[in-house]
Amino acid sequence: MIIEKISRALGVEPWRIKGALDRHTIRIVKDFTPNYIVFKKSLGQIERGTSVFLNDDLDVVPGFPKIQRAFYLRPVVERHFGEKIAVEEKMNGYNVRAFLVNNKVYALTRGGFICPYTTAKLREISGIKKFLSDHNVVLCGEVVGMENPYVIHEYPEAGKFGFFVFDIREKKSNDPKPIQERNSLLDAYGIRYVRLIGIFKKAIVVEEIFKIIKELEKENREGVVLKDPDMKIPPIKYTSSKTNTSDLAYAFRFPYDYGRDFFFSRIMREGYQALELEEEEDDLKKRALRLGESLLYPMVETMKKIKKGEIVTEDFTVRVNSRREISKIETYLRRQGVDVNIVDIREEENGFVARVKRMRHSTNDKIRSLLSGKIE
What we know:
376 residues, alpha+beta, Nuclear Transport Factor 2, Chain: A, D-amino Acid Aminotransferase, Chain A, domain 1, Methane Monooxygenase Hydroxylase, Chain G, domain 1, 4 domains, five-stranded mixed beta sheet, four-stranded antiparallel beta sheet
């Protein structure tokens, strides 16, 4: 019966739903009321990260479509976009979808699971519940700031936690609102959104983007997203050299815990960007030095620590309203396969602050093994 209801809600044949359940590419989450199912992989037109809540209404929250990346910018712009292109800032955080179920605000991660930490934080933001009640849509945004379990990056305007909307999407169709309409709607409720840097003609947009990227690098910001102002064409993202090398420097602290595709993609971005900017020898040497340092220094620093007998961990801080929330975050992360330890919890005037260590076993075990004399 449940399979048939889900089939009708999504417009997918029942046998395909059953097959995905049998293959475990659909997961049933039973520690939430109502239970919900998560699409761990795409199924036909159903995006990965889609969640279906098994209440009377059978609420569906569509997955967020993957945004493709430009490596070599000019031909992408020529082939992909119309005559006007909106350029928005791409913020360095984690993707979240805010929505209502049973008249309560919840936050889904990119993978389609309800995050207790982000849910609690979004419920504190004025305007979100009223907006979702009035419009019955999904708010897609980036969470940024210095206190969260996922991506730590400082933005002065965000403080410890900031939620910036980049899309308003219809629940049934997953269609996004045009940019100007999106911003007007959000302004009316006082909800923040990503910065619209400008709308440019195709003929000049590439030169403008390279100017914008240079300015963003000075402020330690990530990059841009190129969009059709009417949102009829899928967006494209493009990041700065500093972002590429910062990502590499962070990942090479834990080189055996990140996939090789992560490293290779960012290294190749540097090559394509240097080519497109037609860098002369001096600029190319500076880029090469920056790239090499981002790989070697953090890797060697990690090796030194492990050689001394230390354990290398990924550390973060979360600020919540109760000890119970910290326990829920720990349980959630462990269920996602993340091995974390709560180092300490201190009570402050505005809540509780927990320091958390994420164990990076592959890096610690592999380097320790090789340093002890193992050969491969």
